[in-house]
Amino acid sequence: MDVKTLIDLYDTLLLDLDGVVYLGRDAVPGAPESLREAAEHGVRLAYVTNNASRTPGAIADHLREIGAPAGPEDVVTSAQAAARLVAERFEPGAAVLVVGGMGLRSALRAHGLRPVSTAMDSPVAVVQGIAPGLSYGLLSEGALAVRQGALFVAANADSTMPTGRGELPGNGAMTRVITTATGVEPIVAGKPEPPLHRESMLRTGSTRPLVVGDRLDTDIEGATNAGVDSLLVLTGVASPLDLLTAGPRHRPTYVAADLSALHRPYPSVRRSEGGWICDGWTASWEEGRLHLEGQGDPLNGLRAASAATWEAAGEGQADEDAVKTVLGSVCTGRTSLR
């Protein structure tokens, strides 16, 4: 294969949404243009989101509004993964108590299950996802049903979710209400657990997917769990410090500023006698600290620094104090720290 750009290596992009394609209602700058170019390149786009509050149709409408190519069939949600998980365990028509919004209800109906809102309906399962205006009353019904023996499923376990106003409490934070009240931990359908990746593969038929995300603990760990390549974009939650101090399951295959990197050759990051080299930068680990020297695109410095730090950390994680000094200087695009 004649590989000219990063995207040439893959047949499908499994794209996270919040922090990758949009923030709140607004597009991440440049994301729609990069996605249109990817579609024109013949790569399948699948928008894979832990957000279970909206239906695939509503999400596709939002994507088209910001200029991204999308139809309902291109959207894969944690609500769909949670619904399949329940449907594989119970007969069609079974009652499922929904602690969440229309996204969950629609996904359950698509599998022949019956969404309900009270524990008095004797639900076989409780499925929880984030939704605006989630009430104490509905959380209470969920807790009652779980105490009665209903299977407890969480669409995702994200502690926070990025928005245009900053990070807000996510579904993982809200599920703690029912868990604290009942002592029962939920089965998680969303990233980084396998059900959502499985749902994505079933719906796309991909053989060479690239997972694209902004979170190390969901997107990147999910890719690691599935044994597929991943691209971390720095437009959402994860920071350069998070990247350098990442443990083995949170280390992406690639790192980029944004989605435009898909349409450029990815720079080589290679080991040399003096450390790790990436396009004008050399990173090494000496006396328990990260050292970086070079000039040019600071992102290439971060790539070299990540490789050197991860090699030194092995199966562990680097200490923040051992890498912070380099982070403070690499943004200038020219540094020599010893």
From TrEMBL:
One Pfam family, short name = Hydrolase_like
Q: What is this protein called?
A: HAD superfamily hydrolase (TIGR01450 family)
Domain GCN5-related N-acetyltransferase-like intervals: 278-327
SUPFAM superfamilies (UniProt xref): HAD-like (SSF56784)
Coiled-coil annotated spans:
none
Q: Which InterPro entries match?
A: GNAT-like, HAD-like_sf, HAD-SF_hydro_IIA, HAD_sf
The UniProt entry, under NCBIfam families, shows: HAD-SF-IIA
Indicate yes or no for the key word Oxidoreductase.
no
Task: Supply the alphabetized keyword list.
Answer: Hydrolase
Highest taxon of source: Bacteria
Q: Name one GO molecular function term.
A: phosphatase activity
Q: Which organism is it from?
A: Streptosporangium album
One GO term describing the cellular component:
cytoplasm
